[in-house]
Amino acid sequence: MSRSGRSTVASSMDLRIATARERNLLRSVAIFSDLDAGAAAALERLAETREYAEGAVVVSQDEPGDALFVLVSGRVKVVLYGESGREIILSMFKTPGDFFGEMSLLDHQPRSATVIAAERSRLLVLSRADFQAHIEAHPRTALRVLTELSRRLRHADAVIGNLALLDVYGRLAGKLRELAAAEGEDHEEGVVLRQRPTQAEIAAMIGTSRETVSRVLSDLARRGHVVISGRRLLLRRELLVGPPPER
Ligand code: CMP
User: Fold this and answer.
1) For labelling, which of 70, 150, 214, 238 has a CA lying 20 to 30 Å from the CA of 124?
2) Cα–Cα–Cα angle for 31, 149, 116, nearest 5°?
3) Do residues 101 and 57 touch, judged by C-beta distance below 8 A?
4) What does each of the 247 residues of the chain score in pLDDT, given as a tens digit?
5) Is the CB of residue 100 below 6 angstroms from any atom belonging to ligand 1?
């Protein structure tokens, strides 16, 4: 197995051979879903597993990219840092089978962003050489990668539009609707998020401060649009449809 993808943060991770169950996960990754059993098994034999502690850096912006990562368990965030150290969250990956790190492998440029374990996380790793050999032999994987890149670009377009066009109420309501659509559970009064992101994470996703998120969430709660109970959040129906609530 190629080891060229090994991270520089050895102290925060634990490297091991992937178990059969972890390797099977590769079949559920969107970009590999067209593979026949033989091709999937060949790819699975190449994967190794790494475990990262909460807060550990998986890839660093501007460093060369040498591996593709697939989430087995846990949660990672894709971030950019400003001069002052302020963090912007571009994306969160928390569904087993989510993948990242493909951009540097495709365009041979340094990592476009930093990826941090937002909680203890286990990742499958495919080296650059193994991923490239696989893509050359399986053009359908390349088409699937293009589909996923288009989806991510659409999402980035929507985020840019929201940052430019909506006030902080609209941006927060938009983010809550997006979370509700992705992971909400139906409730008689609306939709429940069982484990919403922290206020600091929401702030970093919508380009504002944690204090502002706290103030706007409290205001939405006072007006009955949301019910907050720790990390559990009930979004009432009126927040899920219609225009963003104004101050
Ligand atoms: P790469 O540039 O190799 O390393 C950082 C990774 O973060 C990148 O590949 C993508 O997999 C992921 N990434 C970067 N920007 C975004 C984004 N806007 N949305 C989702 N994922 C992203």
Assistant:
1) 150
2) 85
3) no
4) 333 333 444 445 666 666 666 667 887 888 888 888 888 888 888 999 999 999 999 999 999 999 999 999 999 999 999 888 889 999 999 999 999 999 999 999 999 999 999 999 999 999 999 999 999 999 999 999 999 999 999 999 999 998 889 999 999 999 999 999 999 999 999 999 999 999 999 999 999 999 999 999 999 999 999 999 999 999 998 888 866 566 5
5) yes
Q: Whose CA is nearest to atom 16 of ligand 1?
A: 90
- Confirm or reject: Cβ of 90 under 6 Å from ligand 1: yes
Which residue reads 């225009």 in tokens? 243
- Between CA 185 and CA 94 the distance in angstroms is 16
Q: How far is 154 from 23, CA to CA, in rounded Å? A: 30
| pTM summary value | 0.84
Q: Which atom of ligand 1 is nearest to the CA of 114?
A: 5
- 122, containing H or E segment: strand 121-127
35 lines ligand 1 (CB under 6 A): no
CB 77 within 8 A of CB 88: no
CB 114 within 8 A of CB 59: yes
Alpha-helical regions (H) of 53-194: 102-107, 128-137, 139-165, 168-183
Q: Is 78 in the pocket of ligand 1 (CB under 6 A)?
A: yes
